[in-house]
Amino acid sequence: MIVHEGQHALDKLIGELIFLPTDNDRSTTGFQNQRLFELDLWRHNFVNLENMPIKDLTNRMNGGPIHIGKDRRMSAYTNSILEIKKTLIGLI
Q1: Each residue's pLDDT tens digit, 54-80
Q2: What is the CA radius of gyration of the chain?
Q3: pLDDT tens digits, one per residue of 7-43
Q4: What is the β-pairing status of strands 65-67 and 77-79?
Q5: Which one, of 59, 55, 66, lies nearest residue 32 by Cα?
Q6: In total, how many domains does the chain have?
Q7: Model-level pTM greater than 0.90?
Q8: Shortest CA distance to 80 belongs to which of 13, 31, 11, 10?
Q9: Is 4 part of a structural domain of the chain?
Q10: Which residue, among 53, 87, 82, has the nearest Cα to 65 in the 3D structure?
Q11: Has residue 19 been placed in a domain?
């Protein structure tokens, strides 16, 4: 395995990434593909992502709709920001 120079610094910052096996969930794959498509659009609008303010980029990524659970009603959709707030409030 080839380890790049910056890899050690990255490992110190975020730790080792461990990828777990998946159940090949088509919904999750579709969600990930949608986010990659959006990143390509944003990169096109800003020439490259380095020119886009990080706060704007994270807000766009976390503000988009996500689906929680198996229910298909509109009430089952939320966004990452709301879910993180619920989780943090639950920890208090």
Answers
A1: 888 888 888 888 878 777 787 788 888
A2: 17
A3: 666 677 677 767 777 677 777 788 788 888 988 888 8
A4: antiparallel
A5: 66
A6: 1
A7: no
A8: 31
A9: no
A10: 82
A11: no
Quote the CA–CA distance of 52 and 43 in Å, as a whole number.
Answer: 8
* Whole-number Å distance between alpha carbons of 62 and 84: 10
Q: What is the DSSP string of 66-78?
A: EE-SS--SGGGEE
Say if 69 falls within a structural domain: yes
- Domain containing 51 equals 25-91
Q: Report the C-alpha gap between 18 and 90 in whole angstroms.
A: 26
Backbone angles phi, psi at 66, to 5 degrees: -130, 155
In a domain, 17, yes or no: no
